[in-house]
Structures are given as structure tokens and as C-alpha cells.
Amino acid sequence: xxxxxxxxxxxxSGELRIPGDKSISHRAIMFASLAEGTSHVSGFxxxxxxxxxxxxxxxxxxxxxxxxxxxxxxxxxGLLGLRAPEAPIDCGNxxxxxxxLAGVLAGQAFDSTxxxxxxxxxxxxxxxxxxxxxxxxxxxxxxxxxxxxxxxxESALRGIDYESPVASAQVKSAILLAGLYSDGETRVREPHPxxxxxxxxLRAFGWPIECGPGWAKLRGGHRLRATDIEVPADFSSAxxxxxxxxxxxxxxxxxxxxxxxxxxTGLLHALRAMGADVNGMNSRNVGGEPVADLIVRHAPxxxxxxxxxxxxxxxxxxxxxxxxxxxxxxxxxxxxxxxxRVKESDRIAVMAKxxxxxxxxxxxxxxxxxxxxxxxxxxxxxxxGDHRCAMSFAVAGLVASQPVRIRDCTNVxxxxxGFVELANGSGFRLQADA
Length: 434
Ligand code: S3P
Hints:
Number of strands: 25
Distance between the termini: 9 Å
Largest sheet: 4 strands, mixed
Radius of gyration: 21 Å
Bound molecules: shikimate-3-phosphate
Structural class: alpha/beta
Number of helices: 12
Helix content: 25-40%
Strand order of the largest sheet: 23-24-1-25
Strand content: 25-35%
């Protein structure tokens, strides 16, 4: 288990190459594996989470070559081309991997088991099991709807019209994936629009789908055809540097090729409302996704009430927003974000505790927090094995009065391999214990 020490540092500068988008990398492997023919994936995230998904399909007989880092050549065998895995499939730390795979495996002719690490084994799976069961899937879990998931094959699936109680792209995607194997029409409605990568990718792989903000529908009985996927840089990974450069006087960084899908960029709006100076340049389209180069300069921040409608569009960015809020002048109020309690950790509890240890006044609520801006003092904080909390506390260390020690940072490799090197190259003073 690796601990880090993040020490106060000077301004950040330079052009930073952020690794590929995690959500898109998972889906690229899945759709390419289920397609007929050979797909080339470039910009693939070499993170533990996405590599676990690639391993899962390799375990089910899909030939996946890695000619060089961040590239995969996937020889898909079609919708029914998977074969029974000989051992349980290990999704590691990845909720996306497990929930989307549940949708795929519900439609197979063979039995399978999905397992995960300690964190994933505590995360709720009923949200996908309920709709999949309505579609005819047979899935057993541990008590409380927790992993492992034991999926019985040869279930005849039928389309459903599902109104999801949670705004979750993972739930929507699991249902749509099972819909590929179902008789009739599958329709999903969500309480608030979520990231639409599954819908875009289905279209790119040639499957007819109709969708709009907050809904999607498709019918079974088509084919996926191989295509090439270019994965943009991950906005969620870029977010740590956006906040770091904003907080450190004299900073100016460029983040090239960042995916700016509107369902991901809630943090941009929140930071700008707090006074941040982030500009998009060279807006373009990469493989159907909007992408831009982001330029971030230091700017003083002030607290805001985070608008409720932004919450789903920045759901992965709350750990770093907690840091921005704690370094801002005045009070920031976050509500409507109860989902944070069932992420890789209980992110409200982990961030509130860490900030208190850093000397910040935080009131934790059931679905958010009230954060009073202040100055970070010296402390030892616990990331609780959550990659995004670890990287967020590393940013706090940059602007603290003394070095900040962060426990349990190993899982940063799930989403951001090379974070320490990239951070230090841009001006951080971040040291990882051997
Ligand atoms: C993801 C969806 C989000 C997000 C996660 C990735 C995806 O989860 O938090 O990091 O790739 O679909 P929910 O759909 O559970 O909100």
C-alpha cells in the first residue's frame, strides 16, 4: 500500500498529457469485443479498471492485442462470440466494469460470476439486478445485493420500459447492453440525463438506437460492426490539474485534447461560477466526441451554492471540488449528491474527515456538505483507498502550510497511471513511499 507526501510548491506550468477517458475505454473494449471484425482502439486508458475489462473479454475468448501502450486491436467475434470463462471474472475496483458486464453476461448462453476488490464488493448492485431481472435475467448476489454476482446463462431476455430511480449511466448502459440480447424494445428513462457514451458507441458500431437527453431505446436482433475508436483525454483526470493550477498563484497550464461532453463538464461551470479562469481552445470532434484544449490560469475562488442541476454532470469531480471549496473565500454548499456515498468510498465522509484534519470547517449532510473556505494546515489524511480522494488531497498539499501525508494511494493506478510523474513534471512536490 503506497502513501504519499504532497508538499507546498510553486506555480504549475506546461502542457500536460492526460490519459484516456475511463468510461469510453471500458465501452470501447466491450463493444469491440461484441462486434464482428477487428476494431482498433487508440488513446486507451492503461488503468487497472479498464485493463480488468480487457482481461474479462480475453478470458471469454476475445483476442485483444496491445501493439503499444494505449492501443488495442480487438478481434471481435460478434454478439454471440464469447465463450464461458473458466474462472470468476475479476472486475477489480471498477463499478463500470461490473455493472456493464452484468448486462452483457445476462444475455449469454453460459453461466458466469463477477467478483471485485474490497471496495467494489461493498457497492450496491441491486440497481442493475432489478431491471435485468425484469428482463428475464437470473442473477444471485450476496446478502444486500452485493457482489459477487452469479449470473445464470440461457435466460430468454425480453425488452422492458424502465424508469430508473437513479441518474446513473451505469444502470442505463447495463439495461441497453442486455437489450441487445432481448426480444422486442428496451427503453430506459432517467431522472436526469447522464453520460451518453453507450448510446454514441452503439451508433458508431452500427446498432440502430433512438435517444435524447434522459431517455434511450433500442431493439434486439441487430449486429455490431467493428470500427475504430479514438479515446479523448479524461476530463475527470484533468480536473485535478484544473483545480491545482487555479489555486496556485502564477500558474498557467494547457491540457490538450480533453473530452468535453456536456454530461461530464459540470465542474467547469461550477469552477467558473467560483471565479476560475479556464478557457477552451481548438474545439473539435474526435471520434464523435467534443474535445478541446483547456487553458487554466490561477484565479482566486469564492464559495457558491452548487446548482442542483450540475450534480450529475460532475458526479466524479466532487472530491476535487471539496478541495477547491475549502481553498475558496466564503462558504460552498453542496446538496443532491447522495450518490457520492456509494462510489469507490463514501466520498462525502472521506473528504469531510480529511478536510477537518487539514483544519477546515465542514458540516457533513446526508446528501452533501457545507464547506467554509480556510487555510490547509499540516495533517495526515486517509484516502480510504479511493483514487479520486487521494489525488484531491495531493492538490491540497500544494497549497498547505506544511506537507500533507496521504495514506492508501495505490488505487490511483485504477484511473490515472503516471499521476505522480505528471504532477511532479508540472510543479507538484509529490513523493510516493517505496
Ligand atoms: C460511469 C458512470 C458514473 C461515474 C463512473 C463512470 C460510467 O457512475 O460515477 O465513474 O462510465 O458509466 P453512475 O452511473 O453510477 O453514476
